């Protein structure tokens, strides 16, 4: 299991690969509060919280953490290791972007 | 397999005529900065560029060789971010030990400040760059990630969590760098006269500075400047043939763990643990014998993580080296980043060359060499550990250097 998708498995080097539906759940590994955003399409979005998520299936994903108070990073810090789940937000008719939310 | 330790020595190190913030009005180019530094180091050493046999740079080698009419026997353009120059020294050592060449040039020139000012974008040392480009350093662009501070901030957060360190602990690294900068008249942050944020600064100043990417504040983050640098490396047989004194390459190692930070297993451990081990083994020395640390400081967190990976401090215990000014001028511990570092001296995007220049300055027996017009040296170190970090805590090159006895 590897994210992001590639043509060869970086663990066993097999080229026999396929998509599968993951649980969409994991834990918060680390985060940072981006005061200013530089990524195309994100420049109007800052400040927001970026995060690395350890997936239940075993690899790691990167994304934005929703529904947290960017002015209180200490509160988010206390949540490292906590459960999160994915939420797909529609960007346009063709693209949905995966975001993350702390489990309530 | 023979051990290449001490098969070659650095016999000179120099910078471009000017460095810093102020060059963007002058149309300074990468090439000019390379050539100034090369011209300066050749004059210092007493050698003609035509005697150079191996040309090493971070992706600029054909241009440099052509400009100087060098007909090289060895061409190396390894470009893996700011650590590239430590890798070049490793490669030059190997090429010299193998008998392929006797004289190697490693150079760098990068108008990082001017590029940002004049073209609206930085040159990128690997940690930044365009995440939409093939082979980009980070796959997170579409998901809100971009640039170097954003990446490194996640590593600092993880260190705070995993090891119980504090922002104050990291801030001490920035304070130490500024203190050294007050002794270096070429440092961008030399004083309040050279810059409003110039040295000295306090831990509170760091914590009060503008938030960039929590937990990184502005003063946790390196400068973006224009600079060039160059070192000459020769075989042991030739090491005493020049005006300057040699600094010996006792150990060298390189490694990497990932390129994209998404592939980094533990955000608080870099491949310096491996490149360091290789360098120590080659040198037959250990961290306890290192008397000077030149540790790549793109961010305060880079230094904290790296000194632990190199065994200079225990895991989670980097602050032992910095607390109470131990690493600074007149401190009781190992002096670290004595030129002021990328945080306070100069950081063009790829900083690793300046680690080499400063390590040479501190270890070369001839203070009158007057490297870059800075008189004397500030330490009595006879050994140094130099570690470059490139990309997003990705590639590392470690050198163990020793003074001529």
Q: Alpha-carbon distance between the termini of chain A?
A: 27 Å
Biggest β-sheet: strands ordered side by side in the sheet of chain A: 1-2-3-5-4
* Strand-pairing-aware structural class of chain A: mainly beta
Q: Give the N-to-C terminal Cα separation of chain B.
A: 26 Å
Gyration radius of chain A, rounded: 15 Å
Order of helices and strands of chain A: EEEHEE
Largest interface: A-B, 32 and 29 residues
The low-pLDDT segments of chain A are none
Q: Characterize the biggest β-sheet of chain B.
A: 9 strands, mixed
Sum up the overall morphology of chain A in one term.
Answer: globular
Helix content of chain B: 25-40%
Mean pLDDT, all residues of chain B: 91
> Mind summarizing the main beta sheet of chain A?
5 strands, mixed, barrel
SS class of chain B: alpha/beta
Task: Sketch the topology of chain B as an H/E string, one letter per element.
Answer: EHEHEHEHHHHEEEEHEHHHEE
Mean pLDDT of chain A: 93
How much β-strand is present in the residues of chain B?
15-25%
Strand order of the largest sheet of chain B: 3-2-4-7-1-8-11-10-9
Tell me about this structure.
The complex is a heterodimer of chains A (104) and B (405). By secondary structure, chain A is mainly beta. Helices cover 5% and strands 38% of the residues of chain A. Chain A has a 5-stranded mixed β-barrel. The two termini of chain A are 27 Å apart. With 405 residues, chain B is an alpha/beta fold. Chain B has helices at residues 30-45, 61-67, 84-97, 112-119, 148-163, 167-181, 203-208, 272-283, 300-309, 341-344, 352-363, and strands at 8-15, 54-56, 74-76, 103-111, 211-214, 216-217, 226-235, 247-256, 293-295, 383-390, 395-403. In chain B, strand 10 (383-390) and strand 11 form a beta hairpin. In chain B, helix 6 (167-181) packs across helix 9. The longest helix of chain B is centred in the N-terminal third of the chain and has 16 residues, at 30-45. The relative contact order of chain B is 0.20. Residues 124-132 of chain B have low confidence and may be disordered. The interface between A and B is medium-sized, with 32 and 29 residues.
């Amino acid at each position: 299991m590897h994210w992001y998708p590639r043509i060869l498995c970086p663990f066993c080097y097999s080229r026999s690969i396929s998509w599968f539906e993951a649980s969409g759940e994991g834990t918060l590994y680390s985060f940072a509060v981006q005061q200013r955003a530089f990524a195309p399409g994100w420049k109007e979005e800052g400040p927001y919280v970026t995060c690395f998520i350890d997936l239940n299936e075993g690899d790691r994903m990167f994304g934005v953490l929703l529904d947290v108070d960017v002015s209180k990073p200490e509160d988010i810090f206390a949540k490292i290791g906590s459960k999160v789940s994915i939420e797909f937000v529609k960007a346009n008719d063709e693209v949905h972007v995966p975001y993350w939310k702390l489990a309530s | 397999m023979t051990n290449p330790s001490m098969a070659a020595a650095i016999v000179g190190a120099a910078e471009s005529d000017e460095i810093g913030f102020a060059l963007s009005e002058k149309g300074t180019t990468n090439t000019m900065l390379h050539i100034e530094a090369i011209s300066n180091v050749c004059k210092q050493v007493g050698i003609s560029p035509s005697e150079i046999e191996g040309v090493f740079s971070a992706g600029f080698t054909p241009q440099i060789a052509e400009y100087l009419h060098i007909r090289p026997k060895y061409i190396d353009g390894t470009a893996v971010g700011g650590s590239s120059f430590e890798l070049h020294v490793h490669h030059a050592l190997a090429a010299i030990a193998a008998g392929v060449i006797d004289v190697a040039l490693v150079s760098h020139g990068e108008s990082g400040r001017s590029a940002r000012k004049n073209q609206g974008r930085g040159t990128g040392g690997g940690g930044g760059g365009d995440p939409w480009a093939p082979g980009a350093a980070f796959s997170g662009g579409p998901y809100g990630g971009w640039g170097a501070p954003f990446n490194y901030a996640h590593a600092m957060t993880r260190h705070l969590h995993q090891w119980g360190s504090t922002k104050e602990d990291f801030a001490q690294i920035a304070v130490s760098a500024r203190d050294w900068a007050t002794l270096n008249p070429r440092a961008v942050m030399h004083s309040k006269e050279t810059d409003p944020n110039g040295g000295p600064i306090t831990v509170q100043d760091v914590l009060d500075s503008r938030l960039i990417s929590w937990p990184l504040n502005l003063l946790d983050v390196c400068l973006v400047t224009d600079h060039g640098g160059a070192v000459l490396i020769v075989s042991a047989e030739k090491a005493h043939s020049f005006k300057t004194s040699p600094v010996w390459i006792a150990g060298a190692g390189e490694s990497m763990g990932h390129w994209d930070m998404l592939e980094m297993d533990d955000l608080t451990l870099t491949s310096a643990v491996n490149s360091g081990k290789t360098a120590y083994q080659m040198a037959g020395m250990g961290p306890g014998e290192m008397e000077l640390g030149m540790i790549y400081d793109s961010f305060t967190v880079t230094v904290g993580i790296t000194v632990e990976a190199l065994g200079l401090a225990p895991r989670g215990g980097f602050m032992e080296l910095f607390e109470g000014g131990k690493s600074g001028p007149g401190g009781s511990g190992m002096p670290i980043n004595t030129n002021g570092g990328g945080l306070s001296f100069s950081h063009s995007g790829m900083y690793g060359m300046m680690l080499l220049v400063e390590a040479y300055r501190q270890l070369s027996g001839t203070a009158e060499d007057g490297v870059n017009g800075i008189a004397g040296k500030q330490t009595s170190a006879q050994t140094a550990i130099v570690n470059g970090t490139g990309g997003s805590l990705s590639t590392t090159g470690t050198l163990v250097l020793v003074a001529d006895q």
